[in-house]
UniProtKB/TrEMBL annotation:
Reactions that this protein is recorded to catalyse: a [peptide]-C-terminal glycine + 2 L-ascorbate + O2 = a [peptide]-C-terminal (2S)-2-hydroxyglycine + 2 monodehydro-L-ascorbate radical + H2O; a [peptide]-C-terminal (2S)-2-hydroxyglycine = a [peptide]-C-terminal amide + glyoxylate
Residue spans of the NHL repeats: 439-480, 489-532, 542-586
InterPro entries tied to this protein: 6-blade_b-propeller_TolB-like, Cu2_ascorb_mOase-like_C, Cu2_ascorb_mOase_N, Cu2_ascorb_mOase_N_sf, Cu2_monoox_C, NHL_repeat, PHM/PAL, PHM/PNGase_F_dom_sf
Chain residues that bind a protein: 404, 521, 575
UniProt keyword terms in alphabetical order: Calcium, Copper, Disulfide bond, Glycoprotein, Lyase, Membrane, Metal-binding, Monooxygenase, Multifunctional enzyme, Oxidoreductase, Repeat, Secreted, Signal, Transmembrane, Transmembrane helix, Zinc
Organism: Patella caerulea
Protein's UniProt name: Peptidylglycine monooxygenase
GO MF terms held by the record: copper ion binding; peptidylamidoglycolate lyase activity; peptidylglycine monooxygenase activity
Segments for region (Disordered): 776-805
Copper type II ascorbate-dependent monooxygenase N-terminal domain location: 44-157
Disulfide bonds: 60-105, 92-109, 203-310, 269-291, 502-522, 571-582
Annotated localization: Secreted
Positions of transmembrane segments: 723-743
Residues reported in the UniProt entry to bind Cu(2+): 85-86, 152, 219, 221, 290
């Protein structure tokens, strides 16, 4: 039976009016070479030392937006999922509901509010499609002047919390504005013990310009099984299908949909009340149900009202002929289902289910969210590259390669004092190459500058960092430049002091510009420097026993570095010990990861914030040829160390040396010393959204569930003529208002108004690209074969290396 009847309330949450002055800064309209705005700033919307002293607390803090119109182009959580169950951002045009630094919420905003973003566990940073931004700030009557951060805490705690969301802003006017369109049912009447109950919403879109949905989110409470959304223009086009028991993030749409003025929109929620002996009605608490389908869309930037909604079913005929699978649940997804256990915490009245222990995903079997599949040799066009020692990506998904051209690392490359032996013979090829996602060479440089390329990293500013083990130096190249603006270490001079390196292997850069260097083959330490190159500290020590000392901080070739800044960790591929060691950002040992599948040697690792933090890693072949194991790739949970997946190319990897993860589509690149580069694709694509112009893949955000409980009942709506979604019915509005008032009374605390603190940081968040993981559990005595191949440069541990040469 269907119980939602028709009212269509059309609310328009924001009508943004922009002051002309906003666009005045013409020079800021320039973009950098790679198409990213050059002026990106960040604001950290953090809880202001909130103390969630009860279970299930919902707390809020407010932040004022700039006086000028700006565009949010990226959201990134600064949160630990064990603390913050989920986070929502709401835009307020009339100020926050309270003036205290933090408050119990709802209430959220003084007047109307609209949901702008949602984050739940596992959600990677959300980057909007290119040329698309959420418009905030400015002084217009309905512009978003404050953003209220709402966190649903997982547990009570006495520790002041400062979790939040970092937003990336540009002042450059974007070609398209993003908005949210909400379809919801205000009335539900779900009978007891009924396996399939529908609630439908149908309305017509009468906006002025087409909407292009790129992400969607579903929301219901415990009885919700599946929620689907469609566009109808003579045929049905599915916008999205979601399981509301999964983390209620915004998931990318799978197909390109254009909703033109006059098209119809239909959403269907399907409930199963089996086991519940009472009827269930619409409402915000866990006893009640909700039925919401959100679309995140972009549209022409001339559109001023970007938040709107419709409710009720005005076109029952359209609903009757919905595709037959509209109420068929999605197939089970172990990774997402597991999280559902937490959802119930949201509801005050719900029974708290025991939280399942996260199940370490099986090795290779069925497909999971993090599964990588081999895609291709990459780039596919014929490009002449030598031994690939370093591979990295930038935030735009470009791929950087550091290779050795015609040079090989062999037993004659260094003497026993680690002195490079061909000082008059720099590599003649362009050792640094930058590729587009489709494998085209965009730029190459570095001819006659390098001797034995090793590590490569690209920071958020797109500075290119490299280490050259022949030079014993670390060099930084600003974007577009062929000469370094920072050179550390003395050319060709290996030493152990603070101003020198000895065969440094890798670099990882923090968002504030401070960076780490793994140094390296002979010193066995990690060094930390401030952004200007001043030495800060070093940690770790040479594993003098070579592979028998597995104590924390002992390194037998720290070969690759990655930072998981949001987790406060820097992790090192401790190559010849076949393990990953993770430290806090100050260098205190935190944990190690070692699996027997790593074999003896772990070469490289890279962190990705997706799925609450994973490491991708590659191992390397055994030196002791009597002890063989597969050379392959690994996906690991950063914090638990669980091995989530083993992946490989069909013919196997042979000498992988470095790994990089594309931050936008999470594809993984592996560079080998056998002059090869391989690409592995993330099998599930639901963190990927198409960009409006090109069909590039860009990660989307995610959000969580229930916290928007207030959403349907509380929004005050202002009707705008320009987007008429349906018929405005008086009764439902009154109902909504009453519910709103009740909810607010229920939650009310003191009132006041307050401007949040504004924190502006120059944009400086970048991931260091380099991360690698790997490990081995079995010790092996790596005797080096003095004649082993030339591409084994990195085989030898330092002492052995000496003998070898
Ligand atoms: C409804 O829920 C019950 C109990 O969880 C389950 O056994 C049944 O298969 C479900 N029915 C449908 C149609 O989803
Ligand atoms: C209907 O919508 C689909 C998807 O948005 C689009 O590809 C198609 O061209 C539209 N058809 C008409 C007649 O507008
Ligand atoms: C480099 O930065 C550090 C801290 O950030 C500062 O103490 C030091 O004076 C700076 N050095 C130079 C040469 O600017
Ligand atoms: C996340 O929070 C939990 C509980 O407070 C803590 O044990 C864990 O170490 C935290 N993780 C990180 C990376 O901070």
């Amino acid at each position: 039976m269907e119980f939602s009847f028709g009212l269509v309330v059309l609310s328009l949450f924001i009508s943004v009016t922009f002051s002309a002055s906003l666009v005045s800064d013409v020079k800021s309209l320039a973009h950098t070479d790679n198409g990213m705005p050059s002026d990106v700033e960040t604001i950290e919307l953090r809880m202001k030392k909130a103390i969630p002293n009860v279970d299930d607390a919902y707390l809020c803090a407010s932040y004022e937006m700039p006086d000028d119109e700006v565009y949010i182009i990226k959201y990134e959580a600064i949160a630990n999922a064990s603390t913050a169950h989920h986070i929502l951002l709401y835009g307020c045009s009339d100020g926050p509901a309270m003036s205290t630094p933090t408050w119990d919420c709802p209430p959220l905003c003084k007047g109307s509010e609209q949901i702008m973003f949602a984050w739940a566990k596992n959600a990677p940073p959300t980057v909007l499609p290119k040329d698309v931004g959420f418009r905030v700030g400015g002084k217009g009557e309905s512009s978003v002047k404050n953003i209220v951060l709402q966190i649903h805490y997982a547990h009570s705690s006495t520790a002041p919390d400062e979790s939040g969301i970092r937003i990336y802003l540009t002042r450059q006017k974007q070609k398209y504005v993003a908005g949210i369109f909400l379809m919801m049912s205000y009335r539900l009447n779900i009978p007891p013990n009924t396996p399939v109950v529908h609630a439908d919403i149908s309305c017509k879109y009468f906006g002025e310009t087409s909407m292009h949905p790129f992400a969607y989110r579903t929301h219901a409470h415990d009885l919700g099984r599946v929620i689907t959304g469609y566009q109808y223009n003579t045929t049905y086009h599915m916008i999205g299908k979601g399981n509301p028991q999964w983390p209620q993030a915004f998931y990318p749409t799978k197909e390109d949909i254009e909703i033109k003025p006059g098209d119809s929109l239909i959403a269907r929620c399907t409930f199963n009340s089996t086991g519940r002996d009472r009827p269930t009605f619409a409402g915000a608490t866990g006893k009640d149900e909700m039925c919401n389908f959100y679309m995140m869309f972009y549209t022409d930037s001339s559109v001023t009202r970007t938040f709107s909604e419709c409710g009720g079913s005005h076109y029952p005929n359209l609903v009757q002929s919905l595709p037959a699978d509209s109420d068929k649940p999605l197939p089970p997804n172990p990774l997402l289902d597991e999280k559902a256990g937490h959802h119930h915490l949201h509801h005050h009245t719900a029974v708290v289910k025991p939280v399942e222990t996260p199940t370490p995903p099986p090795q290779t079997g069925q497909s999971k969210k993090t599964d990588l599949i081999f895609e291709s040799q990459w780039p596919n066009e014929n490009v002449d590259i030598g031994q690939v020692s370093g591979v990295a990506t930038d935030d735009d998904g470009l791929i950087y390669v550091f290779h050795r051209g015609s040079r090989q690392w062999d037993q004659y490359s260094f003497d026993i004092y680690n002195q490079f032996q061909q000082k008059n013979d720099p590599i003649k090829e362009e050792a640094i190459m930058i590729f587009s996602k489709d494998g085209k060479v965009l730029r190459s440089f570095g001819s006659k500058q390098f001797f034995m390329p090793h590590g490569l990293a690209v920071d958020k500013q797109k500075n290119i960092w490299v280490t050259d083990v022949g030079l014993h130096q670390v060099l930084r190249f600003p974007p577009g430049k062929d000469t370094p603006d920072l050179v550390l270490g003395e050319k060709f001079v290996p030493k152990t002091d603070e101003k020198h390196f000895c065969k440094p292997t890798d670099i990882a850069v923090l968002s504030n510009g401070d960076f780490y260097v793994s140094d390296g083959y002979c010193n066995g330490r990690i060094m930390k420097f401030s952004a200007n190159g001043t030495f800060i500290k070093q940690f770790g020590h040479l594993d003098v026993l070579q592979s028998t000392d597995n104590s924390p901080g002992a390194f037998d070739i720290p070969h690759s570095l990655t930072v998981a800044e949001g987790k406060g960790l820097v992790c090192v591929a401790d190559r010849e010990n076949g393990r990953i060691q993770c430290f806090d950002l100050e260098g205190n040992f935190r944990h190690q990861i070692k699996h027997k599948e790593f074999g003896d040697r772990l070469f490289a690792l890279e962190y990705s914030p997706i799925h609450d933090g994973i490491l991708f890693a590659i191992n390397g072949p055994a030196i002791d040829t009597s002890h063989t194991y597969p050379v392959q790739g690994f996906t690991l949970n950063l914090q638990t160390g669980d091995l989530l997946q083993i992946w490989n190319r069909p013919k196997g990897l042979s000498n992988p040396h470095d790994i990089a993860v594309n931050p936008s589509d999470h594809s993984v690149y592996v560079g080998e010393l056998d002059d090869n580069l391989w690409k592995f694709a993330m099998q599930h694509t639901d963190t990927i959204i198409p960009s409006p112009e090109k069909k590039e893949l860009i990660p989307v955000l995610s959000s969580d569930n229930d916290e928007e409980k207030g959403v349907d009942t509380k929004k005050s709506s202002s009707v705008t003529p320009s987007i008429v979604l349906g018929v405005l019915l008086v009764v439902p509005v009154v109902l909504v208002v009453m519910i709103t008032i009740l909810v607010r009374m229920y939650h009310s605390g003191k009132c006041g108004k307050n401007k949040g603190n504004k924190v502006f940081n120059l944009q400086s968040f970048f991931n260091s690209h380099k991360g690698f993981d790997r490990l081995s559990t079995e010790e092996s005595d790596h005797e080096l074969d003095p004649f082993d191949g030339s591409d084994e440069e990195e085989y030898t541990a330092p002492a052995k290396r000496k003998q070898r040469t």
